[in-house]
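Why should sequence recovery work at all? Because a backbone constrains its sequence more than one might expect. Tight turns favour small or flexible residues, buried strands favour hydrophobic ones, and helices have their own preferences. The token representation captures these environments compactly. In the example below, the structure is given first.
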């Protein structure tokens, strides 16, 4: 499978979303990786900046439009 977008929760129990994002990026799938969490973005700001993800979206604000804007920066205007 080669999805256009992958939503990755930063808190995955034994694993963490940052490691998953790195592995998916290393697999060169051309998938836009979006991190998400119930925690605030500032709680993970440094890790988000270092990750290969195109961005972060808090779960309470998760929507189709938010995903589209992160996956395709041309829509951010």
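From this structural description, the recovered sequence reads:
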């Amino acid at each position: 499978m080669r999805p256009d977008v992958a939503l990755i929760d930063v808190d995955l129990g034994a694993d963490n979303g940052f490691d998953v994002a790195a592995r998916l990026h290393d697999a060169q799938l051309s998938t836009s990786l979006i991190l998400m969490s119930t925690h605030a973005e500032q709680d993970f700001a440094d890790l988000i900046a270092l990750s290969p993800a195109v961005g972060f979206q808090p779960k309470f604000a998760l929507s189709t439009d938010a995903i589209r804007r992160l996956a395709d920066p041309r829509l951010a205007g």
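A few observations help interpret the result. Residues 2 and 29 are 6 Å apart (CA to CA).
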